[in-house]
Amino acid sequence: MILTNAPRDTGCIHTVSGLNQTVRTLLEAELPMLWVEGEVSNLSRPSSGHLYFSLKDAHAQIRCALFQNRAFLFRDCPRNGQQVLLRGRVSLYEPRGDYQIIVDYVEEAGHGALQRAYDELRLRLERAGWFAPERKYPLPRFPRQIGVITSPTGAALRDVLATLRRRCPGLPVLIHPVPVQGEGAAARIAQAIQRASQRRDCEVLLLVRGGGSLEDLWAFNEEIVARAIVECSIPVVTGIGHETDVTIADFAADLRAATPTAAAELASPDRLEWLGNVRSLDERLQRAMRQALNRRRPEIDRLREHLSRSQPRRRLQDHNQRLDELEQRLQQASRHRIDQKWLRLVGLEGRLRARTPAIHLREERRHIQALAERLRTATCHRLHTASQQIKILSGSLHALSPLATLDRGFAILRRPADGAILRAREAVVGESVEALLSEGRLLCEIKAISALDSSDSGLSFHR
After folding, report:
1. Dihedral sign, CA of 292, 294, 300, 304?
2. Residue 250 in contact with residue 240, Cβ under 8 Å?
3. What is the DSSP string of 177-199?
4. Which of 26, 37, 43, 258 is least surrounded by CB atoms within 10 angstroms?
5. Domain-by-domain residue ranges, the chain?
6. Stronger pLDDT, 425 or 382, i.e. the higher one
7. Do 204 and 235 meet the contact criterion of CB atoms below 8 Å apart?
8. How far is residue 294 from each of residues 267, 286, 289, 304, measured CA to CA in Å?
């Protein structure tokens, strides 16, 4: 940054908005409507219906805007990669500071080639003097017969006849039928003009046809037709296409009308003479208005400049363009937000799948099965151990059981009601007792009781 002590002229400091507005005014005021040819790229069409694209060639590009109120007039909209020829005015989009072309008309580059051929022929014939005003004939005020050169089946002929019938019903009309488009149409039109010029049976010729594209009207842009008109000894009035359609024949004709109907009106006399007076008064009024406009032209220019800066349509176009940009940014932000949410949803879904109850149930089921297997194993082991202990205890119990003693030859004496007799002194002579053996029992009667000494090897019983 370079700092100086130079004084600042505060009157020359602009705001960004003011500077862009000034540049825009200069561009639109200094540059007229112009034609540009190039390739379409970066085409976008928001929901508003406006078209935004770049027009480029091998070395540069420029932004273009085709607003919806003009875009619907074209049957085929531009496409990416298409070579087009467009007409528009240079402007500046103030919010972004970009200069651009506001497109008024667009066509394929092939149509542009026809337009260039048209312009080259018109310039060449104009330099040759074919369009000079001093060469042209004035129209007769009251022609005795009118010739019409057109297609016998077209709408232009019906319009001309209806107009002549309305304006001057008694005026004779001689029709010269010719094709008005296609191969050989230009030669047939030139022959009809030459034939009418030689016969001189009409005082004015009408060369008319309905509207169409540049290709449809090309027969009237041929040099052979212009030559026939220039060499014709009868005044020729053209009414070809619509008001915006201007052909080489229109420049060569003695008078050009906007439409076939207008051509019939210009060539035919008015049955009411006072219309001429009205026309004279209208001309005087127009002259007076032009003089008044000339006197007030500075003020009109100032108001026009003010209007060009503040007209609602231009502001609406700017707001529409800004709205389209915001809409595109909103769509991008929405898509980005949706993508983020989608990624998070995928992550949560993965985590949810990892923690699903089915997985835990499968794990718990496997754990239960393992525990059940362990329980079966432990139960079998415990039962086996208990069985072994029972066998051991059973053996020990059997060893201690009185029945084991009986197996060795001993007997148990007992009274049926009182239980076992443990000592000899508890018995009574003559008493009946029961002797339990290892196998069976005996009913005995005590005959005698004696004490047990060391020499006795056992007990004796007497029956």
Report:
1. positive
2. yes
3. E---SSTTHHHHHHHHHHHHHHH
4. 26
5. 16-114, 129-271, 281-322, 339-389, 402-463
6. 382
7. yes
8. 32, 12, 8, 14
Q: Tell me what the mean pLDDT of segment 192-211 comes to.
A: 92
Tell me the CATH number of domain 129-271, given options 2.60.40.10, 3.30.1330.10, 3.40.50.261, 3.20.20.450: 3.40.50.261
Rounded distance between C-alpha atoms, residue 296 and residue 290, angstroms: 10
DSSP element (H, E) containing 279: helix 274-295
Q: Which helix (H) or strand (E) holds 38?
A: strand 34-44
Mean pLDDT lowest among 223-227, 235-239, 309-313, 439-443: 309-313
CB 212 within 8 A of CB 181: yes
The full DSSP string for 409-461 is T--EEEETTTEE--SGGG--TT-EEEEE-SSSEEEEE--------TT--S---
β-partners of residue 54 are: 41, 63
**Residues 69-92 pLDDT 10s:** 887 777 677 888 888 888 899 999
Distance (Å) of CA 415 to CA 43, 419, 431, 444: 128, 5, 9, 10
pLDDT tens track for 90-149: 999 988 889 999 999 888 776 556 777 788 888 899 899 998 989 899 998 888 899 999
The alpha carbon of 10 is separated from its chain's Cα centroid by a whole number of angstroms, namely: 49
Structure tokens at 461: 């019983």
Q: What is the pLDDT of residue 5?
A: 52
For residue 103, report the phi and psi dihedrals to the nearest 5 degrees.
-80, 135
Please name the amino acid found at residue 363.
Answer: E
Per-residue confidence band for 52, with pLDDT thresholds at 50, 70 and 90: very high
Per the document, the length of the chain is: 463
Amino acid at 88: G
Q: How far apart are CA 96 and CA 293, in angstroms?
A: 38
Relative orientation angle of helices 223-231 and 185-199, to the nearest 10 degrees: 10
Token pair belonging to 243: 């008001």
Phi-psi region of 409 (alpha: psi -120 to 50; beta: other; left: phi over 0): left
Asked whether the CA dihedral 353, 354, 357, 358 is positive or negative, the reply is positive
Question: Domain 16-114 carries which CATH code?
Answer: 2.40.50.140
Contacts of 143 (CB under 8 A, 6+ apart): 171, 202, 203, 204, 267, 268, 269
Copy the structure tokens of residue 43: 């085409």
Specify the pTM.
0.41
